[in-house]
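Write out the 3D structure for:
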Amino acid sequence: MIYKKFRLDINGLRAFALISVVLYHFGVPYVSGGFIGVDVFFVISGFLMTGIVLERVDHKGVLDFYIARFLRIVPALVFAILLLMIFGLFTLSTNEYEALSKNAISSLLFYSNNYYAIHSSYFDSSSEFNFLLHTWSLSVEWQFYILYPLLVIIVKKLRFPVGLSLSVILAMSLAITLMRVTGTKEDIFYLIPTRAWEMLAGGLVYIASVRYKMPEWIKHCEVYGIVLIVVAVVILHSNGYWPSYSALAPVLGASMVILANKQNSLFTSNRIAQWVGKISYSVYLWHWPVIVAMKHYDIEFSAINIFFGVIVSFALGDISYRTIENTLRKRVKLQFNIVLFSSTLALCLFVMFTKGVSFRFSDTLKQVVEYRMDNSPWRPDICFLNPDQDYSAFSKCQDKMTEKSFVVWGDSHAAHLMPGLKSVFGNSLNITQRTASLCPPIIGLQKDDRPYCKDINDMVAKEISDNKPTTVLMSALWPVYPMRDYLPETIKFLKDNKVKNIIIV
């Protein structure tokens, strides 16, 4: 039995996954685990791909499979990247535009997960302005699409049981993940060896569905599966390694929903869930660029702005689905899509090799931009901590806080001020740098994506209390933090500790 009929439950499950991811990325409260939506997407992909691959194990069928995947994923991705490249031409500096082109190339060639594993962390501040950070998951899926049919062909040629073989590989992938064999957080988060088990879980659900007649009570699994997913969205946090043991909850939950195969579900078959599920890929492509654009223009992430940001994301996704996904996939020849893909890749390569089309600007302006982008005075990992470092890392920072100190306290925006302060004041100003990525200078704030932030601020506050510095300059990407709840208390603390000059940038 091969599932050729459209699965309403799976489409509705896509809606759950998408909404979780979008709300999490927009910083909506009570969805601290919304990133698990990607894990749910992986389970869905594994289920669907297993059905297609097992039906098309001959070479012609596999080629057709690759073409179908190309037409499903690439047109909307190319369209999004083209618009971002046009946007970047008029709004980004040369360094930023060059970085965008490199990210775009890695996305188009589906190795962005490997690229980001080396160059950035999903949860650090350097990723906040990467318009294409979210494409890492597409790269993981595409790599899975390439390897999976070949794996099934080999298993069948060797006459090994497909289900047993996939179970063994799943167990190996899960063991690699939980034992952290690959080492770094980035490797575990981004790379396919630690993500394959999630897709293979979906594959095993497919095999079980077609080989065994499911009892009627299995339909009740849908409710339990949805509860598992919702609980994971609400209670999980991005602290530490991911995937971890906790990833079993969303993966098991998604597997239960799919296994239940309930086509008249109140949760997944309603019109809203079906509409969101249909446009989920395009909305996923567009929601993150919308978020980055809001940060680029310093738009505060207030409730009303988040609401409109989500609306814009869904509107762009709906437009992309209707005009790009359906049109270029179903009505336009493969050759045209290949030409469009190649042209976009060529454009990105041109931008990269011209250093962000640097001839757009005069030499004077380029010098100003290069000076602004120089991060050597930030003293990264020493006086400007990354998300993996706790307060003790400041022990390597030679800045000692005294009564005469000019304290620079905050996140990467505070660190950005160091080159200018050093250039203008040199050694005449006793600057004490206490900056940490993704960590605003707000006492008492606990950030899910920055586990050490509260402790860092508590210790900086203790330093201030002990030394009573003359001036404290606080700087951060304020619009994305809950200032109203914490900032007044922080200012009161500084005044109570006899800080004469309080500067907020």
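The mean pLDDT is 86.
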